[in-house]
Design brief:
Layout (H helix, E strand, L loop, with lengths): L2 E8 L3 E8 L5 H10 L8 H10 L8 H17 L12 H7 L3 H4 L17 E6 L16 H8 L4 E8 L6 E3 L9 E2 H11 L8 E7 L3 H15 L24 E5 L2 H9 L4 H8 L19 H6 L4 H9 L2 H4 L2 E4 L7 H4 L8 E5 H18 L4 E5 L13 H4 L5 E4 L6 H9 L8 E3 L24 E11 L1 H4 L13 E8 L6 E4 L10 E10 L6 E8 L7 E9 L6 E8 L5 E13 L1
Parallel strand pairs: 3-12, 4-7, 7-8, 8-9, 10-11, 11-12
Antiparallel strand pairs: 1-2, 3-13, 4-5, 5-6, 14-17, 14-21, 15-16, 15-18, 18-19, 20-21
Protein name: Phosphoinositide phospholipase C
EC number: 3.1.4.11
Keywords: Cell membrane, Hydrolase, Lipid degradation, Lipid metabolism, Membrane, Transducer
């Protein structure tokens, strides 16, 4: 391999020169090449196919695929006038370069492969919170742009907060009682229509937080019907006894909100502010109160401010039939003890809980939550103090079967990385089939308990060979002013409490092309819910270590063998060139 020279100027007078050799194939790659090439200096298409089947477990690959790979590489070689190589097969270096082709050796399947014919309650669904906000929860602008970006990333649940506009003759989307600037509902709906299915064919669910008078609810129904037309799904039965399947509602828009009558009742029977504050402060009482989000709790004077006078209330008791007819997933009435809401009898419904509520409820009612989510839907949302649009640990919802773990997609940080990692599953379509154990009931009506320590189901071996691409994507002095970077890789497991683990490689100093060649083992009790978090950092002796890229991968979908793992920036955008060569094995 060649050598690259880097010069760094110090104090304007002195140069530091670093000569760095480009990466050679690791010893494991050499050994595998020799094995499948039968000790010969080149690997034929038939031998490559055997490697893909036996080592990579790519059982769907055909002889046609391996022949096409070899032909493409040989064609590229001819263009480079490299006549000394074997004309019938791949050299070791060509095989090594082939391993970096993400289309063939990426870590995950790129196609939808889960069963999509079960009711929606059987899936984790990629869910946004306050999807219209561009920044923080108090003063940022409302816009359709974050909605568009979320849909382009595969988010399937979009939340809109609906309020009367200043003249009370139209509808704004805005975070109520804050300084956020509104955006029109029509603009949001039109953008949803345009971008709903650019990433995924599977249904988009719009959850409406409704603060409207009956006449404006009727206007929402008219507007929604006109914008979406045949894309809009209407429930087949009233009441809804079973949710549709993702496959049956491809390219359709579904609406989820409280029916008009239930909306008014939730205002009339709301809990006092003092009760809410005691809950938010962490009361350990098992008599937990179900809560809606802050904007959805209005007192009597608020109802008058919203224009719900006595005449409006009377008409609202009748309900807005056009509006109610749109609702596929009915939101339950958020009043009373949480135990009452977890009743699995009756019609299908959606219950919204804050992250704090869910954590407290799971202490006493964990089994009830799992049973509830086998037929119904739970939506979890960030606590009200997350005004900076931060997020929480999504596993607090997934462990109990919560389908809609709602996140602030405009934020960033590890929690959002976990969310993005989970929904890289199933071809990135935004729907991930829940593990079978979350849908099962034992003979004694027992269900999965994530806090119970279970035996190890499998052991994941992760080997980190090397990385490259930083010298292409970053400036020469991005990490260190006077020398090449000092990279190390963190490898972590995120999942049920028993499976959590954190490990890291040694630091490779002064090298844009680090070679670690280190292996780690992770025993896993619930691999179906586990994520592999990979993060590269650049060591800094005097300041916080610099960020060099990250990704999260669902362990249940990891492909075995040598894999090229592309890394992303802190917001989850894929870096152009940065990637790691790794190996995954399950025992």
């Amino acid at each position: 391999m060649g050598t690259v020279t880097y010069n760094f100027k110090m104090f304007k007078y002195f140069n530091r020169t670093f000569a760095i050799s480009e990466q050679a194939p690791p010893s494991d790659v050499k050994d595998v090449f020799s094995t499948f090439a039968d000790g010969e200096p080149s690997m034929s298409a038939d031998q490559l196919l055997r490697f893909l089947h036996d080592h990579q477990l790519e059982l769907d690959c055909t002889a046609e695929d391996s022949n096409r790979i070899v032909d493409n590489i040989l064609h590229s070689r001819k263009q480079n006038d490299d006549a000394e190589c074997d004309p019938n097969g791949l050299t070791l270096d060509e095989f090594f370069n082939f391993l970096f082709l993400i289309d063939f050796n990426g870590p995950l399947k790129s196609q939808v492969h889960h069963d999509m014919d079960a009711p929606l309650s059987h899936y984790f669904i990629y869910t946004g919170h306050n999807s219209y906000l561009t920044g923080n929860q108090l003063s940022s602008d409302c816009s359709d742009k974050p909605i568009i970006k979320a849909l382009q990333r595969g988010v399937r649940v979009i939340e809109l907060d609906l309020w009367p506009n200043s003249t009370r003759d139209d509808i704004d989307v805005v975070h109520g009682r804050t300084l956020t600037a509104p955006v029109s509902l029509l603009q949001c709906l039109e953008s949803i229509k345009e971008y709903a299915f650019v990433k995924s064919d599977y249904p988009v669910i719009i959850t409406l937080e409704d603060h409207l008078t009956p006449d404006l609810q009727a206007k929402v129904a008219e507007m929604t019907t006109q914008v979406f037309g045949d894309m809009l799904y209407y429930p087949q039965t009233d009441p809804v006894t079973e949710l549709p399947t993702p496959e049956s509602v491809k390219h359709r828009i579904l609406i989820s909100t409280k029916p008009p009558k239930e909306y008014l009742e939730s205002k009339q029977f709301k809990d006092s502010d003092s009760e809410r504050e005691s809950i938010d402060e962490g009361s350990s009482s098992p008599c937990l109160i179900a809560e809606v989000e802050t904007d959805d709790r209005l007192n009597g004077s608020d109802l008058e401010e919203e224009g719900l006078n006595a005449r409006d209330k009377k008409s609202d008791q009748q309900g807005a039939p056009e509006y109610k007819r749109l609702i596929t997933i009915h939101a339950g009435k958020p009043k009373g003890h949480i135990k009452d809401h977890l009743n699995i009898m009756g019609d299908v419904k959606r219950l919204s809980l804050s992250e704090q509520e869910l954590e407290r409820a799971s202490v006493t009612y964990g089994s009830d939550i799992v049973r509830f989510t086998q037929k119904n839907i739970i939506r979890v949302y960030p606590k009200g103090t997350r005004v900076n649009s931060s997020n929480y640990r999504p596993h607090i919802g997934w462990m109990y079967g919560a389908q809609m773990v709602a996140f602030n997609m405009q934020g960033h940080g590890k929690s959002l990385w976990y969310m993005q990692g989970m929904f890289r599953s199933n071809g990135g379509c935004g729907y991930v089939k829940k593990p079978a154990f979350l849908m099962e009931k034992c003979p004694q009506n027992e269900v999965f308990d994530p806090k119970k320590t279970m035996p190890v189901k499998t052991t994941l071996k992760v080997k980190v060979y090397l990385g490259n691409g930083w010298s292409t994507d970053f400036s020469k002095t991005h990490f260190d002013t006077f020398s090449p970077p000092d990279f190390y890789t963190k490898v972590c497991i995120v999942g049920v409490p028993a499976d959590k683990a954190n490990k890291k490689t040694r630091i490779i100093q002064d090298d844009w092309f680090p070679v670690w060649d280190e292996e780690f083992e992770f025993p896993l009790t619930v691999p179906e819910l586990a994520l592999l978090r990979i993060e590269v950092r650049e060591y800094d002796k005097h300041e916080k270590d610099d960020f060099g890229g990250q990704t999260c991968l669902p362990i249940s979908e990891l492909k075995s063998g040598f894999r090229t793992v592309p890394l992303h920036d802190q917001k989850g955008e894929k870096l152009n060139s940065v990637k790691l060569l790794m190996r995954f094995q399950f025992n």
